[in-house]
Structure formats: C-alpha cells, structure tokens
Amino acid sequence: MIRAMMAAMVLFVATSAHAGDATADLIKVLSGINSMQASFAQRTTDAKGRALPTQSGKMSVKRPGMFRWEVQKPDHQLVLSSGKVLWIYDPDLLQATRQELSDQVGNTPALLLSGDPRKLTQAFDISAEEGSGGERVFTLKPRAKDALFEDLRVRFRNGAMVQMELGDTLGQRTEISFSNIQLNPVFSAGLFDFVPPKGVDVIDQI
To answer: What's the total number of domains in the chain?
Structure first.
C-alpha cells in the first residue's frame, strides 16, 4: 500500500496531446485543488496477475505537503504527514515509524495533490488523453531512475481526481478509485498531526 500510495480504465477515444499542452493542462487542473477529501478503494495485482486483498478507507490532502491516508479494511493502517515528517502507524502491531519527508516524495503520486503542481515538469514526462464523458486522463512517467513507480495514469472529472492507476517497479499494478469526493474542504486543526498512543513502539528513522 505504501508503494502504491507514494509511488498506481475505460477505453480512450482520442490521441495523446502535445506534451507541453498536457503539462499545462494538468497544472491548471491541479491548481484548482488546494485540498481534497474522499473515500477510496484500492485494487492491486502482483507481477503474475494475481489479485491481492482489496483495501478501502479515507484520504485527505492539503497543500503544501499534508496528507492523511487511512486504510480501514481489511486491516487498519495510517500514513500521514504534516509537511515535514512522515508517520506510518500499524495499530495491530502497536508500531509507528517516523521518517523524514524527503525529496523522494517528488517521484511519487503524493506530489500530485500535496506538492507544488509547477514542479511536475521537473519530475515527470506527461501526456494527456480525452476519456469518456469529457474526462481528462493524464499519463505521467517519472524521469528519476530511482522512482517508486514506472507509470501513473490519473483521471479527472469535473475538476476532481476520480481514479489513479500505477505500475510499480516490482511489476504490480494498482488501481485506486475515489468516491464521496469533497474539493477544497476546510479541515479541523490537527488532522495531519500524529501523537503515538501510549504503549506504541516508535521506530525513528530520522
């Protein structure tokens, strides 16, 4: 899940747009999303095409650099950042890992909704297609050789990101569908902060 989130459709009826136009279009769409909240369902197949357990939960993101990704089923897991530190919390294991939110995030899908849209051209080669019903579909390929994924397709409808599909370096394919989407909500104070509960083992990697 971490690789898919940090570092994954219908048939498309148009050819790819010019790369420069695609980048400008994607920046324009993302610039209208300062924050987003949604439910998600994540489906992953491994390198042999076998389906892994479906995950579902809720996500919240806010620029700059804040995100909260909470898996509720089948097992509870929380990944969040307040913009400087990344926490990964596994309640069942009574374990929380604290990491530095490094530049590596720039090579992952997290950059799309929590980072600076203008930096996309530094991290990705971008093309665009028209989907059904006026949807816009963008394909991003990381320029960095050490990126956590090989390709990423994102679909927007009425200015909102409704689906993300990515292939990672292990040969897995992940599709994330968003529902109950709220664009530019105002979040409660402390939503992106994390204080390890009493009794939780903290692994500090900073």
So the answer is: 1
Q: Please tell me whether residue 72 adopts helix, strand or coil conformation.
A: strand
Tens digits of residue pLDDT in 72-113: 999 999 988 887 888 999 999 999 999 887 644 544 555 566
pLDDT of residue 18: 42
Question: Can you give the pTM of this predicted structure?
Answer: 0.81
- Give the up-direction half-sphere exposure of residue 155: CA atoms within 13 A in the CB hemisphere: 22
Cβ partners under 8 Å of residue 47, min gap 6:
170, 171, 172
Residue 146 resides in a domain: yes
Domain that holds residue 112: 2-186
Distance, CA of 142 to CA of 102 (rounded, Å) = 16
What is the chain's alpha carbon radius of gyration, rounded to the nearest angstrom? 17
165 within domain boundaries: yes
Tell me, yes or no, whether 107 lies in a domain.
Answer: yes
Residue 194 lies in a domain: no
**Are the C-beta atoms of residues 8 and 133 closer than 8 Å to each other?**
no
Of 87, 110, 61, 67, nearest to 206 (Cα)? Answer: 87
pLDDT tens figures, 110-144: 556 666 777 777 778 889 988 777 889 999 888 87
